[in-house]
Design brief:
Number of strands: 13
Distance between the termini: 23 Å
Structural class: alpha/beta
Radius of gyration: 22 Å
Helix content: 40-55%
Amino acid sequence: MTGHRKPIGRRELLMVTAAGAATTLWAPKAGAATATGGQHPSVLRALERVARPLRSTDPGGRTTDLRALGAMVGGAEVVGLGEATHGSHEFFAMKERVFRHLVEEKGFTTFALEMSWTAGLDIDEYLQGGEGTARQVAEKTLAGSPRERAEFVSLLAWMREHNRRHPRRRVHFMGDDIGAPRLGDRIFERVACYVRGARPHTLPRLIELYAGLRPLDDIFAYLGKPLAERRRNAVTARRALELVTAAVGADGEAYEWAVRHARNIAWTFAFAALDATDPGSVTAAEQLRDRVMADNVAWWHRRTGGKVLLSAHNGHVGFLSAYPTMYPKTQGSCLRDVLGGRYLAIGFTFAGGSFLTKDTSLGGDWTRTTVPPAPRGMNEHTLDQVRHRDYYVDLRTAPPPARTWLHTARPTYDAGSVFEPDPLPTLALGRAYDVLIHLHRVREAEKL
């Protein structure tokens, strides 16, 4: 993926927009993205001056093209690396490539992912020498997610091998999200084990509180339970957290872990108390998720003292979301409040291609969606006029013409669990991220 772009001809356009039986096609309505105008010569000249070409998005091989990215990271201790879609090969592969570079050149030690806290613990056990293979662990912990793909098996295999070769410079994996799609039973047992040793007289009460909650193996099925029952369970989980918080023992580290486990249990049941028929309740639940993810990452960073690469959707790692009503305060914004300049947000854009989406965010299968090259008036249309096929740019130091353009909201490709293109959301890229990686085309992530 290097060198200058070849002219886009009719054949390439047909290849991009052609689809198989499992593909959803979308094309912009005539004039849909033209209201905000097209690219400006001064903007393109400014972007050309500061754009750094990428040799590849795939890991392995030379990394000299990432040296400038390392300089942009600077002294940041937590780096958020987004994705404009869930389930595109290039985004997933680039995460491994960047993480490997940050581990080897900048001393990063943790890969944090927008996934269940408990599943993250299971993955980390494997990385530290646990049983199984990378594929088996991925199939167990990532099942039902768009990340149950070959790209994440590759990442886990590399992390495991790194720990084998460098036992004194181990890397770790954490899940920073609430327990969806499953919380499991082991996390309840971890909390009970701590209380059994630290405050055994309170164990019966803890067992009583958790009895009706454990295990939570399918949060989507759980959301089908009556709202009143789910809200009572949220109160119960919070009471259990209060009991564990009061159980201060001699082992301070064990206490911290037990409280963090209990806190994630309580957060999960609080999230699952949402009323899916009430947009306000759904928004409040999503706002809780961003606060939880930020809190977990900040806690992990503080406890380990290590540097963290945080992987999530653009709308979680950035300072602004393309859907501000749903996400008025993002995880990235929360982390900037806590860490200041020690947090860096890197966003992704792409000018066309394929990714995975579902019919509904609360369930369903992940299938391929394909979008055509971005039309005039979209952020990606202008970005794609830069001579490099794939590149990155420091938005903080972009020349004035580019900075003015970047701080103006325009239609952009943004797909979470579902893709809602009519109308496309708008985003001011320069206000959302510190650094931007732009890719010419993306394709569906590779099945296991």
